[in-house]
Design brief:
alpha/beta; RNA binding; 410 residues; ligase; Rossmann fold
Length: 410
């Protein structure tokens, strides 16, 4: 049988720089040699590579940890490649079993539709919408039908499917695995066939699914995609991955002041990892800034720059400047220019009840805990007495560093 002719293109300095950009902050790039050849071919022929990211709209919003992979997409987009934002509206009906020890409850079609619209609006804060191809995998998955699904299932073995870590653990732990869960990695892989992807991105927990795409493309006679996995962003606590359940996250829809202050709260060490994964500054710029800090520049300067960049991305440059000034005012004990106005009655009112009714504490018991910790101030004075009664009047009430309200009590 005649072997296909493989054309070799030169690996120029431009290809080397594109490879460096690709490798920035990644966990794995497999196989790197193939991706280098693809980059060289693209540069020589002027044909952009097709870069795919699939996201299942399982929740209505995302935090900045989710944007790590989106940032990588933007970097590749800026290199001139075609990025494809794939919304897994069909695969969400199955539920991705990655990293799970039980079957994921499927969402309704209506929930998926609402979440998908929100996902793309938020992703467009990172990607350039004018240069982003948006697709839904129901386009081809709905058309597979029973015959197509059987033919697809024939291209992978049960033995290899059981090599997947979460399936292996659940099987040997006596936990159930539904047959439909085997379809998920097959369909995610088939997405790469339908889109003729050159590269697919995902988190480290997606490696099995990404490699499935390579396998199926070969089965269907296509050039196999390369796969790129990104690490999971460490959260505000500096220990655990960013997660809403760990309360160590920054939501990309949070207000500018909160977002700015949260970025400033991370450690000086973690800041450099965030620069690599979240900043659009070049590696050379980051290295120069790091050298300045090592040479004696205050690390807070670098952290403020990062906080303003992230805040401006999801709000505006003006909002980032205002958030910086708000943070300075608060650090000096000042009151922000705009705080909620609250009207309450029942004077004299106990401080615990006042905090709860003003939405500054979720409960009276939490209010008491905040008072015991010295986190409550009225007109700048720390409140230490749980039994304090507040008389009629207007008071500026502060809880922690960021919660304020101007309370008028009658």
């Amino acid at each position: 049988m005649n072997q296909p002719v493989v054309t070799t293109y030169p690996v120029t300095d431009g290809v080397g720089q594109a490879l460096e950009t690709t490798l920035r902050g990644v966990d794995e790039l497999l196989p790197q040699e193939e991706w280098t050849r693809k980059l060289a071919r693209s540069e020589a022929t002027g044909v952009p590579l097709r870069v795919k990211l699939g996201l299942d709209p399982t929740a209505p919003d995302i935090h900045i940890g989710h944007t790590v992979v989106l940032n990588k997409m933007r970097q590749l987009q800026d290199l001139g490649h075609q990025v494809i934002f794939l919304i897994g509206d069909f695969t969400t009906l199955i539920g991705d079993p990655s990293g799970r020890n039980s079957t994921r409850p499927p969402l309704t079609a209506e929930q998926i539709k609402v979440n998908a619209e929100t996902y793309y609006r938020q992703a467009a804060m990172v990607l350039d919408p004018a240069r982003t191809e948006v697709r839904y995998n129901s386009e081809w998955c709905d058309q597979l039908g029973a015959r197509g699904m059987i033919e697809l299932s024939a291209k992978y073995t049960v033995a290899r499917m059981m090599e997947r870590d979460d399936f292996h653990k659940r099987f040997h732990g006596g936990q159930s695995i539904s047959l439909h869960e085997f379809l998920y990695p097959l369909l995610q892989g088939y997405d790469s066939v339908a889109l003729k992807a050159d590269l697919e991105l995902g988190g480290t927990d997606q490696k099995f699914n990404l490699l499935m795409g390579r396998h199926l493309q070969q089965e269907y006679g296509q050039e196999p995609q390369c796969v790129l996995t990104m690490p999971l962003l460490v959260g505000l606590d500096g220990v655990e991955k960013m997660s809403k359940s760990k309360n160590n996250y920054i939501g990309i829809t949070e207000d500018a002041n909160t977002m700015f202050a949260k970025v400033l709260s991370i450690s000086d060490t973690l800041m450099w990892d965030w620069y690599t994964l979240l900043s659009f500054k070049s590696l050379a710029e980051i290295a120069a800034l790091k050298a300045e800090v090592a040479g004696g520049r205050n690390p807070k300067d670098a952290k403020v720059m990062l906080a303003k960049e992230i805040t401006a991305r999801f709000h505006s440059a003006a909002a980032a400047d205002a958030a910086e000034q708000d943070f300075i005012n608060r650090s000096k004990g000042g009151v922000p220019d705009e705080i909620p106005e609250v009207q309450l009655s029942g004077a004299p009112l106990g401080i615990g009840a006042l905090l709860k009714q003003a939405n500054l504490a979720p409960s009276t018991s939490e209010a008491n805990r905040l008072i015991d910790g010295g986190g409550v101030r009225i007109d700048g004075a720390v409140v230490s007495d749980r039994g304090l009664k507040i008389d009629a009047g207007t008071w500026v009430v502060q809880v922690g560093k960021r919660k304020f309200a101007r309370v008028t009590l009658s």
